[in-house]
Amino acid sequence: MSRRRTLRAGLAAALGAAGAGACGRTGSSGQTAPATQATLPSAGEWRMPGESHPHELTFMAWPTRRVWTSDITGVREDIAGIARAIAEFEPVTLLANARDVEHAERACGSGVTVAPIPVDDLWMRDTGPNFVLGTQGVAGVALNFNGWGDKQTHDLDGHVARRILESTHIRGLRAPITGEGGGIEVDGRGTLLATESCWVNDNRNPGQSRADIEHAMKSLFGVTTVIWVEGAKGHDITDYHIDALARFAEPGVVVMSTPPGDAPRDVWTKAYEQARSVLEQARDARGRSLEIVELPEPTALRGHSEDFLASYVNYYVCNGGVVIPRFGAAGPDANALSIVKDLYPGREVVQVPVDTLGEGGGGIHCSTQQLPKAP
């Protein structure tokens, strides 16, 4: 199973104050500045809707040449293609450094709004706010992005959540825990999935127990049930995010990125098997067992490294549509398209290439963050 990795060993030393983002290397911390509320909200005050809830728009970010160097053309083509696909269904706001705004506008077209907000890189799922709904409207949870446990410089990306909230005048909720949006998956009805490896980890939450972190999650995201799987600590830069492994297609239905039967018995297949065993026995917030749908990973991909994120599960649900990867393996691509269409009846399913993005260990979901419509 593929995972995000460090692409540019030694790059951080040359970055200085500008930061490296998702594909650089260890550097200064750049913690997210305090949002408007630093204490946990009351239970039930806010809730995180499922991704299928209607969106106001999608946030994305433009990759930088500083990080991607010789891969910059390919990764920008991937991000522009994703942005254009989503813009067929809902508005897209793409953050970009001032010097890149004009280029991003040309690449993405008139359907995408480019905002001059400084970024290190493209991983909006992890750097942006995680939005919740309540009687007061919409709020954004800032999860104190610290470069996946100080593995990367993030002087700009560490402030992206705050800058989005300030620019949109949305209330901010600063979490007492550190993590990333790719590390959580909710059904919108009180259930949350997470990997212990990226949350119960001293590189993000030193001194905090799983119970402490779960308590914060319940208050911040309005969930009553947290289902934990082990994940894989220290084997990739994210410490194994849930959004490349398991997603809620709807409450009670989990779709899992499933390795082939002859996959090697490595840390990734073991993590999948452990997670599947947990989910098969779990109950959601309504006390129901979970239906598990397999979404097979593509096999025999050519021209990609072993760290390529070959997960169809890292898709994105938008208004009236679902945007999923196309890996260039005809049979697996067609099979994934068919499965996702069955999972999301009534939505148009669009496949886009992610060849360079996948080499960065990420995917479509990693590069997006939805702003839900207020009830």
Task: Give a quick precis of the structure.
This protein has 375 residues and is α/β, with parallel strands linked by helices. It is built from 12 helices and 17 strands.
What does this structure look like?
The chain has 375 residues and is of the alpha/beta class. It has a single domain (12-372), classed as L-arginine/glycine Amidinotransferase, Chain A, CATH 3.75.10.10. 26% of the residues lie in helices and 22% in strands. The chain is built from twelve helices and 17 strands. It is globular, with a radius of gyration of 19 Å. Mean pLDDT is 89; it is low at 1-36.
Which structural traits does this protein have?
375 residues, L-arginine/glycine Amidinotransferase, Chain A, 4-stranded mixed sheet, 17 strands, disordered N terminus
Helix-strand layout with pairing:
Elements: H1 12-15, E1 46-47, E2 55-61, H2 65-68, H3 72-87, E3 92-95, H4 101-108, E4 112-115, H5 124-127, E5 130-134, E6 137-142, H6 147-150, H7 160-168, E7 171-174, E8 184-186, E9 191-195, H8 196-199, H9 210-221, E10 225-229, E11 246-250, E12 253-258, H10 267-281, E13 291-296, E14 316-318, E15 321-326, H11 330-343, E16 348-353, H12 355-359, E17 369-372
Parallel strand pairs: 2-3, 3-4, 6-7, 9-10, 12-13, 15-16
Antiparallel strand pairs: 1-5, 2-17, 5-6, 8-9, 11-12, 14-15
Largest sheet, in brief, is: 4 strands, mixed
- Compute the number of helices: 12
Order of helices and strands: HEEHHEHEHEEHHEEEHHEEEHEEEHEHE
| DSSP summary, beta strand count | 17
Determine Rg (CA atoms, Å): 19 Å
